[in-house]
Amino acid sequence: MAQARDQWTTRTGFILAAVGSAIGLGNIWRYPYVVYDNGGGAFLLPYFFALLTAGIPILLLEYSLGHKYRGSGPLSFRRLSKKWEWLGWWQSLIAFLISGYYMVILGWALSYTYYSFGTQWGSETQTFFLEKYLGAADFGSFTPQLKVLIPVVLLWAFVYYVMRQQAHRGIEKLARILMPLLVIMLVIITIRGVTLPGAAEGLNTLFTPDFTALADPQVWVAAYGQVFFSLSVGFATMITYASYLNKKEDLANSGLVAAFANSGFEFMAAIGIFGALGFLAAQSGVGVDEVVNQGVILAFVIFPQIINELPFLNSFFGVTFFGALVFAGLTSIVSLLEPAISAIRDKTGAARTTVVNWIVGLAALMSVLYATDGGLNYLDTIDHYLNSYGLLIAATLMAVATAWTTRKVGELQSHINQVSDVHIGKWWVICVSVVTPVMLIIMTGLNIRTEWLVPYSGYPMPWLIGMGWGALVAVLIAAVILQSKEWKVNTGQAEQQEKEGA
């Protein structure tokens, strides 16, 4: 007998959880740099074009799969077509692997929240981060770093407590608390960023349009890449979350709200961060382009420099910034774990607490690798391959499965329209069937071509192949094995419920 499925208590709870999943570290430290590096203000045109032709269509596709078939990624794909069940497992396992290193980044942010009191990182912020905090070493070094490991263990204990609860008690409550706080923190950061001396120069650097960039295909590829990375599609998260909605929920409206809320958040983050970068450039007597960076260096090297230069309340703004990273990351990491938890529960019928014990326990063990002195290299490699290849390939195959092989994209469109006030038309079918897979195939091909000529970040090719491609192949093999296992629940339940009008 099938177990009762978790359900969100309200639509607001679902939207907050969905937005919390999408809003993560990449919105804060990746989006501003991508805008700057791809035509400034002119980049907003390809960005919103990509959002409307790929981001929102794929988001709605995931919503429709989870909502119509009432299951996790593997169960929803199995109900779509038995031969595609493995894709749901592959997506869920990729998200699970990401959680292992993502938590370590949150551990860094938690440590820096503490270090913000009295700006304990000193004036040499890069030396402090790489040498004194991470103890960074080359590939092949695996010495644990307690300064990193302790906050990671504390965060895993908190996440374990949250994940043991039913979705509406754990994930939904976490989102209801953290998302408003995160917005408040971002507003504080943005207001402070744009009121600093030199902020105008930073904003000019960010938004001055270079319309010649629109003729560069790489700019359009970057726009599609940013949209996919920031919306958390391709990880089976939104399939799982949508399966917890009641059967009459408005999918189209919920998808539009989540997508535009995510875009608004990262746009606001870009304003605050480039205002602060303009201030740092003015204080250092250099151009803004000399202090612009992204990712780990922006967050843990450049931003501490900015905090050092603030005229007052340095510790307060440090706590606010790094606390915002922690909050954004927590709402994202629960969404990375839930697909695997839900999938195994669907497959085996096991109790949630039992599955959480295994999933969180294994993810926590994975984190130990990234909490070593060589962890930054391992983290960077795995992150690049899972996101640049795993995510894009998974999303491409999802479009192929629904539009090309099973040809059920029309059914999914009808399902969305049946429960939504805003109806989607042929544009959605065209985007899912043609625009999205074509763009994703182009992006993947360009990535492979570029890195065949120049290895990613100059890392040794054997490590890139072993860790990067090795991780993708390992989860693919695991996905095929899991598909071969017998289901302990009724995989046809969703279809039967629809026939009965449940």
Walkthrough of the structure:
By secondary structure, the protein is an all-alpha fold. The chain has one domain (12-500): Amino acid/polyamine transporter I (Up-down Bundle). Helices cover 75% and strands 0% of the residues. It is globular. It starts with 10 loop residues before the first helix and ends with a helix. Mean pLDDT is 91; it is low at 494-502.
Question: What's this model, at a glance?
Answer:
The protein is mostly helical and 502 residues long. The chain contains 21 helices and no strands.
Question: Which properties best describe this structure?
Answer:
502 residues, mainly alpha, Amino acid/polyamine transporter I, 21 helices, 75% helix, disordered C terminus, SNS_sf, NSS family neurotransmitter:Na+ symporter, membrane, transmembrane, transmembrane helix
Unreliable spans? 494-502
User: Structural class, from helix and strand content?
Assistant: mainly alpha
CATH superfamily: Amino acid/polyamine transporter I
CATH class: Mainly Alpha
Roughly how much helix do the residues carry, as a percent range? Answer: over 70%
In what range is the share of β-strand residues?
under 5%
The total count of strands amounts to 0
The CATH topology is Amino acid/polyamine transporter I
Radius of gyration: 22 Å
Largest sheet: none
Order of helices and strands: HHHHHHHHHHHHHHHHHHHHH
Shape, per Cα inertia axes: globular
Specify the number of helices: 21
The name of the CATH architecture is Up-down Bundle
Spatial separation of the terminal alpha carbons: 17 Å
Total of domains: 1
Mean pLDDT: 91
